[in-house]
Write a structure and sequence with these properties.
Layout: E1 2-5, H1 10-17, E2 38-46, H2 54-73, E3 77-79, E4 91-98, H3 108-115, E5 120-122, H4 143-154, E6 158-160, H5 166-175, E7 181-182, H6 199-208, E8 211-214, H7 218-221, H8 229-241, E9 248-250, H9 269-280, H10 282-300
Parallel strand pairs: 1-2, 2-4, 3-4, 4-5, 5-6, 7-8, 8-9
Helix pairs in contact: 9-10
Length: about 300
């Protein structure tokens, strides 16, 4: 099967815990994904809210150095290039940043990140930073945040609204000129967590032709934290009903969250695919799992 994932935190976990990207005991490894026919994986360089200013920038550089070394050492890991064919069992990586605090408050670093191959950046993690307010914060999009959004769009780097609070989301929606993404967020009408998207947010992203990546985190799937494939399908069905047929994708959050037992490892994506094919049919399941994200990246990034 083909799989395109908009978010995982495996680089942070491996680089912090001294584990290898190829073979480890985490939720995702290159070895566990060898069964895919085509696999595009977004690897986020996560910036914990305890880092700000130059400390946040140095944390970004630390994680990027680990990833760069893995690219050099692992024969099955490559940077994603939609113009090149993909080999079965290999992983084609898209580097991203989770938390715009990584910029250290310097607009010039957006271009630096672009030159380093960063294709996507969430403006915040959960707290407020120099750009905007996170889901647990209280501030809105700052002037520096508006400048950052404009510079990211100029460089064809995707603005990621996952983790923004509601105020910041709508301020980004007004400021953005191009489609933007919610790389790992679900439907708030299905699960009421503040990290999930309201129906109006889902419609706004869909009307712009953006992307929404389904998050596997139990707290974002179910109010009672009893999540399974059926609950995941409920989120998918709700987003699809709001215009998301060409917008819905996957943003697993592997190695960044507690996941249901049915989907707590990347090799279990095959079972999810089977469930989706049975429920939605093969064409739509294929769009959600791979084709929507691939088409979006070809049109707006590469």
């Amino acid at each position: 099967m083909n799989y395109f994932d908009l978010h995982c935190d495996t680089v942070y976990e491996c680089s912090t815990k001294g584990k290898a990207l190829y073979d480890n005991d985490l939720q995702l490894s290159l070895k566990k994904g060898e069964g895919f026919d085509a696999w595009v994986q977004t690897f986020a360089f996560w910036i914990d809210d305890r880092f700000r200013g130059e400390d946040a920038y140095r944390e970004f550089l630390r994680e990027r150095a680990f990833f760069t070394e893995a690219l050099e050492q692992e024969e099955q890991l490559h940077l994603y290039d939609p113009q090149k064919p993909m080999l079965a069992g290999h992983c084609y990586a898209i580097p991203s940043v989770e938390g715009g605090a990584a910029l250290g408050g310097k607009l010039s670093r957006v271009q630096e990140f672009s030159h380093m191959g960063i294709k996507l950046m969430t403006l915040t993690w959960n707290g407020d930073n120099e750009l905007a307010g996170g889901a647990l914060g209280s501030s809105g999009l700052t002037e520096f945040g508006k400048q950052t959004v404009a510079e990211m769009e100029r460089l064809r780097m995707l603005v990621d609204v996952s983790h923004l609070n509601d105020q910041s989301f709508w301020q980004v929606e007004r400021a953005a000129k191009r489609p933007f993404v919610a790389s790992h967020s679900n439907a708030r009408s299905v699960c009421g967590h503040r990290r999930n998207l309201t129906d109006d947010m889902i419609r706004a992203i869909s009307e712009r032709g953006g992307l929404i990546g389904l998050n596997f985190y139990v707290d974002f799937l179910s109010d009672d934290k009893q999540a399974d494939f059926a609950q995941m399908l409920r989120h998918m069905e709700h987003i699809l009903a709001l215009g998301g047929e060409g917008v819905l994708a996957v943003g697993s959050d592997f190695d960044g969250a507690a996941l249901p037992g049915c989907i707590n490892s990347v090799e279990k994506i095959e079972k999810l695919g089977q469930v989706m094919v049975q429920y939605f049919g093969e064409p739509l399941a294929g769009r959600i799992l791979f084709d929507n994200a691939r088409a979006f990246y070809q049109k707006f990034v590469f």
